[in-house]
Amino acid sequence: MTSTNKHILLGVAGGIAAYKSAVLVRLLRKRGAEVKVVMTSSALQFICPLTFQALSGHAVHTELLDAETENAMGHISLARWADVLLIAPATANFIAKCSHGLADDLLSTLYLAASCPVYIAPAMNQAMWGKPATQENITKLKAHGVYMIGPEAGDQACGETGLGRMAEPEAICGHLDSYFYDAGELVATFGQCLQGRKVLISAGPTREPLDPVRYLTNRSSGKMGYALVRAALDAGAEVTLISGPVSLTAPDQAEVVHVETAAQMYAAVMSMAPRHDIYIGAAAVADYSPVVAETRKIKKHDAQTTLILQKTQDILADVAALAARPFTVGFAAETHDLDAYAQTKLKQKNLDMIAANWVGGEQGGFDSGQNALQVFWCSDGGVGQKTLPMTDKSYLAKQLIQLISERYPKQS
Ligand code: C5P
Asked: Which of the 8 DSSP states describes residue 168?
């Protein structure tokens, strides 16, 4: 019962699945969690607040501007109270509001104000779920670190069949249980574990130009690197991000340098590395780049053509070779022989730590919101290792940052 004593703020938006949220409150209470409920005005059309009040043992909140609340700042104190904000059901409209940062009622304002993890259980008609606008909003929220639970496929209240049913209350409780179980593995002092440290992180792919309109690149989305930036900031570090071209937004607190080519990334990292305590090379740097980038568009003539490529400079190895080197952490993305390749790279590049992950399979890796890592480090002449199982990249990043903080040489 890992949700025991946890504070769960349940947001209920206006969908027929709101009736299942009553069962959800009951199940969460049975696990020993404390639950407070916030309803949108449309949720009030589907289910009566008294139901939630009786089940949760707390008054239900519906108004943003509640004069009765101390300082009329109820939304901030509710957001601070929550260990998790769970929005179930989340309608298409409510998801759109969250993804665009609208805050025109209590629940959407709470979403913006909350710094705790947010879980969303969507519920809507299958056509609404399938609409590109909804899918874009979902993708955006996932990129912002929101955890999605469901939806499930099946018969819908509207008479149609398809994907869009809210996940069952038991399944939602299971997600929260495993979140709290995992989170128990992060030290209570995670928020200070890199306090005052300067962390340099490279992320995303590079682009190696062939001519003015073409380039060689790879499938890296930058999600892992950006999640590491957030996790390092959460751990109290000052963070510099050297980013290849990605469609992600970096946190305001990080200093960001945008680059495109491997050579630009090399120059940026090498100039910054000596001023940092820790370097994490999470970028998928091109191994080769065209010897010549044509100034005019290459025309097609022959049935086959040849590109002449030259090896790029290895940023990670060169950072690790600096006289005053930061604690140097690399990544190894492999399609086979993961452990062996990772350990070879750890030694050959003289790294302090390497995080290896499978790529090219069905789960995790490039462009996915989830991943698993096998982490290796040098330890007393041997190699230490830890498995970080498949999970959301934002949580995985926190686990890796914690591991780095444990291995980083303690200085007084
Ligand atoms: O040797 P390989 O490319 O597999 O090693 C991956 C690690 O090396 C990653 O951390 C990546 O950021 C880094 N790397 C680098 N410069 C390169 C190629 C890879 O820093 N030119």
From this structure: P
Q: How many domains does the chain have?
A: 2
Q: Choosing from 48, 158, 173, 193, which is the catalytic residue?
A: 158
Q: How confident is the model at residue 157 (pLDDT cuts 50, 70, 90)?
A: confident
Same domain, 166 and 250: no
Kindly report, residue by residue over 6-25, the tens digit of the pLDDT.
Answer: 999 999 999 999 999 999 99
Domain match, 179 and 246 both: no
Residue-wise burial string across 149-182, b where 16 or more C-beta atoms lie within 10 A, e elsewhere = bbbeeeebeeeeeeebbbbbbeebbebbbebbeb
Residue ID of nearest Cα to ligand 1 atom 3: 287
Q: What pLDDT is stored for residue 73 in this prediction?
A: 58
Distance 283 CA to ligand 1 centre (A): 7
pLDDT over threshold 90, residue 370: no
**Residue 367 is assigned to a structural domain of this protein:** yes
Residue 67 lies in a domain: yes
Q: 159 and 13: one domain? A: yes
Q: From CA 92, how far away is CA 222, in angstroms rounded? A: 27
Nearest to 330, CA basis, from 370, 389, 377: 377
CATH number, domain of 49, equals: 3.40.50.1950
The closest residue, in CA terms, to atom 5 on ligand 1 is 332
121-to-52, 174, 210, 302 alpha-carbon distances in Å: 18, 13, 45, 54
Indicate whether 175 and 196 sit together in one domain: no
The whole domain housing 366 covers 192-411
pLDDT in tens, 278-309: 999 999 999 999 999 999 999 999 999 999 99
34 pocket-lining for ligand 1 (C-beta < 6 Å):
no
Whether residue 158 lies in the annotated active site: yes
- Are 149 and 211 found together in one domain? no
Question: Do 150 and 201 lie in a common domain?
Answer: no
Answer whether residue 340 shows pLDDT above 50: yes
